[in-house]
Amino acid sequence: PLGLAAGFDKNAVGADQLALLGFDFIEAGTVTNQPQPGNERPRLFRLPRDRALVNRMGFNNDGAAAVAARLAARRPGPRPVLGINIGKTKAVPEDETTRDYAEATARLAPHADYLVVNVSSPNTPGLRGFQAADRLGPLLTAVREAADRAVPGARVPLLVKIAPDLSDEDVDAVAGLAIELELDGIIATNTTTGREGLRTPPRAVAALGPGGLSGAPLKQRSLHVLRRLYARTEGRLTLIGAGGIETADDAWERILAGATLVQAYSGFIYGGPAWARTLHRGLAARLAASPFATLAEATGAGAREAR
């Protein structure tokens, strides 16, 4: 159930190789319709005392056309499940956002096992405003229609990735919208703009500047959002738990809370190349010691017991 979250393989250059490290699925991106260089460097920082990262990459990528051409040229053979995370081109005006996403979707959908609409990065001005239901609904509808036109006769699963900084009421609204639009799933969560509870001295944190915080400090808030989503969707959607997953215990906790799958990025950075396989062994041991025969049986069991 363990995937590599978007942000690591931004241009879909290493999905097949990364799978050899033990990841079951790879989420490439974030890819924008037009190529863009991203924000000025330095733009990625470690907070070792917190086992966290701060990034303000700014969706640096080769653009949808180049990524689509690269994926079309992949060698045949066994492949990992490949998701493609799509974001807004920074230079595109807000009133053209829907068209921008739809064009990227048309190019990328034929090469994706699933698609993710990213409206939760803090590093593209105005992007998080599209998490509001009245703006998110038309955007997701346009992406769904573009994907269906690009891959006729085959429904590419569509998910949305949300921020941990949403209020509980907004989380509920996204859950309701996802059910209404018949989305396939939600990823909970992206990075946070918060800096609370860090061990790194505040002056050192402030010196890094703005950006999204990922890693261990995100653990509890992401878990809270996941639990709320599961309670509102009652198992009708695939929920992917992300944010602060470092150990098999973390992954197991997300599954019991309602996650069908889990993703990580910062945990991989700090854990190293063997990290994914270590986590899998630990997760297998927890499943074997549980009353459940499969991870599917365990999904949401903690939430059901709490009712």
Share in helix: 25-40%
How many individual helices? 12
- Give me the Rg, rounded: 18 Å
- Uncertain runs are none
Main β-sheet, in a few words?
Answer: 8 strands, parallel, barrel
**Secondary-structure element sequence?**
EHEEEHEHEHEHEHEHEHEHHHH
Strand proportion = 15-25%
Question: What is the mean predicted local confidence, pLDDT?
Answer: 94
State the separation between the terminal residues, measured CA to CA.
25 Å
Helix-and-strand structural type: alpha/beta
Give an overview of the whole structure.
- The protein is of the alpha/beta class and 307 residues long.
- The chain is 39% helix and 17% strand.
- The protein has twelve helices and eleven strands.
- The protein has helices at residues 15-19, 64-72, 97-108, 133-150, 168-181, 202-208, 219-233, 248-257, 266-271, 275-288, 295-298, 301-306, and strands spanning 2-4, 25-32, 44-47, 52-55, 81-87, 114-118, 158-162, 185-188, 212-215, 238-242, 261-264.
- The strands form two sheets. An eight-stranded parallel β-barrel has the order 1-2-5-6-7-8-10-11, surrounded by five helices. It has a three-stranded antiparallel sheet with strand order 3-4-9, with no helix packed on it.
- Helix 8 links the parallel strand 10 and strand 11.
- Helix 7 (219-233) packs parallel to helix 8.
- The longest helix has 18 residues, at 133-150.
Describe the secondary-structure layout.
Elements: E1 2-4, H1 15-19, E2 25-32, E3 44-47, E4 52-55, H2 64-72, E5 81-87, H3 97-108, E6 114-118, H4 133-150, E7 158-162, H5 168-181, E8 185-188, H6 202-208, E9 212-215, H7 219-233, E10 238-242, H8 248-257, E11 261-264, H9 266-271, H10 275-288, H11 295-298, H12 301-306
Parallel strand pairs: 1-2, 1-11, 2-5, 5-6, 6-7, 7-8, 8-10, 10-11
Antiparallel strand pairs: 3-4, 4-9
Helix pairs in contact: 2-3, 3-4, 4-5, 5-7, 7-8, 8-10
